[in-house]
Amino acid sequence: MPLTAWPRPRTMLWATAALVTLGFLVALEIAARRYGLPGPITCQMQEVIVAPKSGFLLYACMALTMVVLTRRQRYVALGAALGIDAVFLVVRWAVGADPTDGHPFGNGALWVILGCAVIAVTRRTGQERVLLLKGVGLGLLLLAGRKTGDTWLLITSKTRPTVLDPYLAVADHALGNPSWLVGRIVTAAGPVAARALDYVYAQLAVAAVVVALYQLRHVAAERRFPRHHLVRTFLVIGVLGPGIYMIFPVVGPIFAYGADGGHWAVANLWPDLPPPISAAPHEIPFDEITPRNCMPSLHTAWATAIYIHSRRAPRVLRYAGTFWLIATLTATLGFGYHYGVDLLAGVVFTLTIEAALRSLERGWDRSGVQLVTYGVAVFAALLASYRYLPMEMAQRPWLFGPLLILAMASVIYGYVRTTGQWEQKAVPAPRSEPEHELVSG
Fold first, then answer.
1. How far apart are the first and last CA of the chain?
2. Across residues 198-218, what is the average pLDDT?
3. Which of 7, 282, 387, 396 falls between 20 and 30 A from 140, CA-CA?
4. Share of the chain above pLDDT 70, in %
């Protein structure tokens, strides 16, 4: 009797990742149910019928799924999504259901993604089935990442009754209180500039999809995905980041020191007056509604990832990546969502994750291990200094301010230098043409 062949390692890896992802979603669903709210699985399934929270995100997820389709199939999928949305729009209008808490479109995109999954299982075989399921998984993972993020934020607000904002507010003196400075600038710029920044801040996932679509543009022709792309980095940031929220709960200047914090705020200071440093910082209680989602700044982390992955794109995408990074940094500080030290940690966080994913893709070597280890060490040192040395940092900004910037810059330099060496080794040396010698007779 012939021995049954073991599954290939890559197949086992995909199966393991799928099981871990499913278990993670189920765990978050159970945790959310304990607080009387729907979890990520329920929210995602509800959007098959109810008005979606973000129609733009659903169409972006569908665009990721369509990278595995031919041009004709993409037209059919897009037409089907628009047609389904038109039917939903007419039905909602007929029954008087006004989607005040969501977008009037997007259901069609989700129906098309789920339809692709059904077609893959029932009408495809072999590698074609696997490829189509990967496209569906990519689209659903981005959507699930958004839903799990919402659940994580709920968990942070319910399980962390105290926050560490006074520590970061004091430590931020070493950087010159950038949130207070940029907050005054954005306020002075007026409502038009604020609305533009708010749009950039809210549509970060859509910007990521645009860059990812460029990276995945050859999937349909080559019938395979590249080994590393932006969506992988985006999802890993979203999975690991909330874990740091639980360790270092922070609500942000607009809540801890601004009007949005209500009676829970330490004082109504943001963005006019920086917090004083006369007393040692301590934990403060806060409500069970506001997410503890500041340390590190994941918007900064995601915008940094978009910037990194747009460097090999055409000029217009490189400019767009740079713009999105600058605008996101401005919005995170100018709206009072983050302290300056959050942004430094977010950059280090992203570069470390990106280095780890690239090392995993190319095979771990000494340079990759060193870069990731150094990034983890710097990130841990930043968090420890914010927690245990804020007074020293505020009292000696001439020393600690440059040290913080230097720490982040050292990780940037290490990443650029190491990945540059990897790329040089990956490019095969040009073959020299054989020299033709004259042979005298």
1. 69
2. 89
3. 7
4. 92
Residue 440 has pLDDT above 80, yes or no: no
Cα–Cα separations (whole angstroms), residue 30 to 39, 180, 290, 396, 424? 7, 39, 21, 47, 48
Q: Is 371:415 a contact under the CB 8 Å cutoff?
A: yes
Three-state secondary structure readout of the chain: CCCCCCCCHHHHHHHHHHHHHHHHHHHHHHHHHHCCCCCHHHHHHHCCCCCCCCHHHHHHHHHHHHHHCCHHHHHHHHHHHHHHHHHHHHHHHHHCCCCCCCCCCCHHHHHHHHHHHHHHHHHCCHHHHHHHHHHHHHHHHHHHHHHHHHHHHHHHHHHCCEECHHHHHHHHHHHCCHHHHHHHHHHHHCHHHHHHHHHHHHCHHHHHHHHHHHHCCCHHHHCCCCCCCHHHHHHHHHHHHHHHHHHCCCCCHHHHCCHHHHHHCCCCCCCCCCCCCCCCCCCEECCCCCCCCCCCCHHHHHHHHHHHHCCCCCHHHHHHHHHHHHHHHHHHHHCCCCCHHHHHHHHHHHHHHHHHHHHHHHCCCHHHHHHHHHHHHHHHHHHHHHHHCHHHHHHCHHHHHHHHHHHHHHHHHHHHHHHHHHHHHHCCCCCCCCCCCCCCC
Contact 301, 237 (CB under 8 A): yes
The pLDDT value given to residue 5: 47
Closest C-alpha among 123, 264, 252, 93 to residue 180: 252
Contact 64, 139 (CB under 8 A): yes
Neighbour count for residue 83 (Cβ, 10 Å) = 13
Asked whether the predicted pLDDT for residue 80 surpasses 90, the reply is: yes
pLDDT band at 388 (very low <50, low <70, confident <90, very high): very high
93-128 tens-digit pLDDT: 887 776 666 777 888 999 999 999 999 999 998 888
CA distance 352 to 355: 5
**Is residue 18 over pLDDT 80?**
no
159-190 pLDDT tens trace: 899 999 999 999 999 999 999 999 999 999 98
* Mean pLDDT of the residues in the chain: 87
